[in-house]
Fold:
Amino acid sequence: MRSPRPRVLIGGGGEKKTLRLVAQYADACNLFTTSPRRSATRSTSSRRTATDVGRDFSEIEVTIAGRFADGGVDEFVEQLQPYAKLGVQTVIVMPPTGTPAQWIEDFAAPLVQRVADL
Structure:
């Protein structure tokens, strides 16, 4: 494999194929935000699959992506707490439709440090 190379992020939760691809090739995996419980199941399966292929799961960055409730900053931080306990290191947030730049300025910017503190 050439070095340096682009980082590879694989998203999905298919236990037969996708998680094996994550364990073999990915620098990061995206668990999506279906629910903390479902993400926990995928995280456990990912760890087991990594062990099966001889890879240390701690080498794989865990991410989530999705739209979150339209509530305020406190509600958003509360929603992310279970994911932080799962070892999620990066949160990819899709802004709502309408005026995404304004949403980033008004909503996302004020919560960055609070999420980082999780």
